Amino acid sequence: MPSKETLEQFGNCWEGLDDPRSGNAFLHEFLELLMIALCCVLCGGQGAVDMALFAEAKEPFLRSFLTLANGLPSHDAFSRLFRNLDPDQFRDAFQRPMAQFSEQLQGVVATRIASPSPIAGWSLSPRAMSPSGGETPPTATKGGS
Predict the structure, then answer these.
(1) Does 81 lie in the same domain as 140?
(2) Are the beta carbons of 126 and 108 closer than 8 angstroms?
(3) CB 140 within 8 A of CB 122
(4) Which of 3, 5, 23, 41 is least surrounded by Cβ atoms within 10 Å, i.e. has the fewest?
(5) Helices 30-42 and 48-57: crossing angle, nearest 10°?
(6) Which range marks the domain in which residue 133 is found?
(7) Quick one: 110 and 96 in the same domain?
């Protein structure tokens, strides 16, 4: 399970990203919304409704490291947040941890394995990559092709 230190590091990734919500829209913690959204998207989710459904389906897991003091966020909470985020700030904030993440995954390639679930069929497997570029990893695609 993620530690408090891991969650602090996650928060540091979003430095410079302003919370655009105002008034009574602060029911849920900004970083908790971002964490749920990221987890959802990494599992194949594509929008606010998927994020809310993901939170419901994975509530015990999420509560193991998030407070969720006011319950689970609705699709409206995610929609309002992402509709009002500054796209340039979001891009800049998101690119920093993704660059660090890609450095950590050097030599690891996503591969598609046979599975009835479009999400469960993805895995990461190590692959030796030559420094000169050598072998090009296969492109992972949805749909099992």
Answers:
(1) no
(2) yes
(3) yes
(4) 23
(5) 90
(6) 106-145
(7) no
Please check whether residues 10 and 32 belong to one and the same domain.
Answer: yes
The single-letter DSSP state of residue 17 is -
Q: Which amino acid is at 91?
A: R
Digits of tens for pLDDT over the chain (145 positions)? 566 777 788 888 888 999 999 887 789 999 999 999 999 999 999 999 999 999 999 999 999 989 999 999 999 999 999 999 999 999 999 888 788 778 877 776 655 555 555 444 444 444 433 333 344 444 444 444 4
User: Is 27 in contact with 70 (CB distance < 8 Å)?
Assistant: yes
3: phi then psi, degrees, rounded to nearest 5:
-90, 170
Whether residue 110 sits in one domain with residue 98: no
End-to-end CA distance of the chain: 33
